[in-house]
Design a protein that fits this description.
Elements lengths: L6 H10 L5 H4 L5 E3 L4 E3 L7 E7 L2 E6 L5 E7 L4 E2 L12 E4 L3 E7 H10 L3 H25 L2 H12 L2 E2 L4 E3 L6 H8 L3 H13 L3 E2 L7 E3 H16 L4
Antiparallel strand pairs: 1-8, 2-7, 3-6, 3-8, 4-5, 4-7, 9-10, 10-12, 11-12
Helix pairs in contact: 1-4, 5-7, 5-8, 6-7
């Protein structure tokens, strides 16, 4: 098997496989993972790609103080595992945050599918372009957008289940520590931003309940604040 030489290609392939090739590649039997169980950790072989059938998986890494920092969340339909042929080993922890059902595909099967479908190269180019644009947007958001806007956008993106009344809820209850890790900010700052969003009627939450998000209102809020930030300063 010829590995990729660029990690970006590994990531792009994983994203592209969420499309037309998904059913062809992920044909193994499903596996159930208990809440809190490790799916893989740094140093494990990376020659397997995973797809979430049900549940929630967190990708994390160790911070400078030794604590785990959540980097990304994967829900039903998402593909993860990095498929890092360029390194051969995993760089992060993947943990089931709730009872999770997975199906996996070996590197050999993925490469065979790629050879059978040369048009996947177009998907890879498209995904790489999208990733570059997204990376620039994220850098701009960190540099320009206030925390309340970044938090509103993150909660909007994390929504999983609609309540049918214009509100949508996160897939589970996330602590303020977890949300702060996802945004790379202090817990105290995150808590203040959560309070501000609730006072604006954009989110709602209670003890032991997932955050609820007013979808249309949050979309208008993030678009309006982005336009204001882009206006020239007097």
């Amino acid at each position: 098997m010829q590995p990729f030489h660029d990690h970006a290609a590994c990531l792009a392939l994983a994203t592209a496989l969420k499309g037309n090739l998904c059913d062809k590649v992920f044909t193994a039997e499903v596996a159930t993972v208990a809440k809190g169980a490790r799916i893989y950790q740094p140093g494990d072989s990376s020659l397997v790609l995973y797809r979430v059938v049900a549940g929630l998986v967190g990708l994390s890494s160790l911070g400078p103080d030794g604590d785990e920092v959540t980097l990304h969340l994967y829900g039903p339909g998402d593909v993860f595992g990095e498929l890092c042929f360029c390194r051969g080993v995993q760089m992060h922890f993947a943990t089931a945050l709730e009872p999770t059902v997975l199906v996996c595909a070996s590197a050999e099967r993925v490469i065979a599918a790629l050879q059978d479908r040369p048009d996947l190269a177009l998907d890879l180019i498209r995904v790489l372009s999208d990733r570059l644009a997204s990376a620039y947007a994220d850098l701009q958001a960190v540099a320009v957008d206030p925390l309340i806007t970044r938090l509103a956008r993150k909660l909007f993106d994390m929504c999983a289940a609609t309540d049918g009344d214009g509100w949508c809820r996160l897939p589970r209850r996330f602590t303020h520590d977890e949300l702060a890790q996802l945004l790379g900010v202090r817990r105290e700052s995150l808590t203040r931003a959560m309070i501000d969003l609730r006072s604006l009627g954009l989110i709602d939450y209670g003890p032991h309940e997932p955050v609820r998000v007013a979808l249309a209102a949050v979309r208008r809020f993030t678009e309006r604040t982005r336009r204001l930030e882009l206006l020239p300063r007097q």
